[in-house]
């Protein structure tokens, strides 16, 4: 009797060992389907494997504050509660638009005493996830417009300024009718090209600024301005789209 009982126990143990279990790798496959949040500001949490916490991504405000010469605007970014602001050189408090979710920052200073200054920052991502921060400063004197625009990779340890690689060169000729080719200095003076950064989406807009038309084409303009005034009669388009390509790490022209 004891012998039969022992044989039954042995048989039960062998059956348990041979019972089918969960397939190897099934848990990993489920984990692979989980997507990370799309927001640019990720909350810190445990890294894969439960080790050290993952640092949150920097916001557009962080990148603005980290700018140094010659890229840093002359406006210090400050915060009071949920509101962002800066103080101009004349002592005026100016509101600052900080859209952290879309990676966009803008401030406008109308009280410079000589025109208007607009600062824009927009955050883009490379295919690797690394950031590219576009920094724009426009200077409008009431008639003419100038712009300084840089494309920076703040987390690239080898090179910060990637403007030549990331930004296609557009001139007044890109906005004029085919076959019409005025002298370069005349075309550039009449139609300076400026770029507006996107608050939403990843397509910037290059524009041919026509503010100087009033100077060159008014009734009292000198005769030598006639060649400049002629340029505006051959304007074929006002703007050109510049779509951000994550793989190339550059803007491409949208026809």
Automatic annotation (TrEMBL):
Listed A to Z, the keywords are: Signal
Q: Which residues form the signal peptide?
A: 1-18
User: What is the species listed in this Swiss-Prot or TrEMBL entry?
Assistant: Phaeodactylibacter luteus
Do you know which PROSITE patterns this protein is assigned to?
Answer: PROKAR_LIPOPROTEIN (PS51257)
Quote the protein name from its UniProt record.
Lipoprotein
Domain of life of the source: Bacteria
């Amino acid at each position: 009797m004891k012998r039969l009982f022992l044989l039954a126990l042995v048989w039960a143990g062998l059956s348990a060992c041979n019972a089918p279990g969960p397939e190897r790798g099934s848990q990993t496959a489920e984990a692979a389907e989980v997507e990370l949040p799309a927001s640019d500001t990720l909350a810190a949490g445990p890294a894969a494997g439960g080790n050290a916490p993952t640092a949150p991504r920097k916001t557009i405000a962080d990148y603005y504050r980290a700018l140094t010469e010659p890229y840093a605007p002359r406006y210090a970014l400050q915060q009071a509660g949920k509101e962002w602001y800066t103080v101009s050189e004349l002592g005026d408090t100016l509101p600052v638009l900080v859209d952290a979710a879309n990676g966009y920052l803008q401030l406008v200073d109308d009280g410079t005493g000589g025109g208007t200054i607009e600062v824009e920052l927009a955050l883009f991502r490379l295919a690797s996830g690394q950031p590219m921060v576009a920094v724009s400063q426009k200077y409008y004197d009431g008639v003419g417009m100038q712009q300084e625009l840089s494309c920076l990779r703040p987390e690239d340890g080898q090179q910060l300024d990637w403007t030549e690689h990331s930004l296609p060169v557009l001139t007044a000729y890109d906005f004029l009718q085919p076959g019409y080719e005025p002298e370069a200095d005349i075309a550039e003076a009449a139609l300076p090209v400026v770029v507006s950064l996107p608050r939403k989406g990843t397509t910037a807009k290059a524009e041919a600024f026509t503010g100087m038309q009033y100077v060159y084409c008014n009734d009292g303009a000198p005769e030598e301005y006639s060649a400049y005034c002629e340029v505006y009669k051959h304007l074929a388009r006002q703007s050109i789209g510049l779509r951000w390509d994550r793989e190339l790490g550059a803007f491409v022209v949208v026809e």
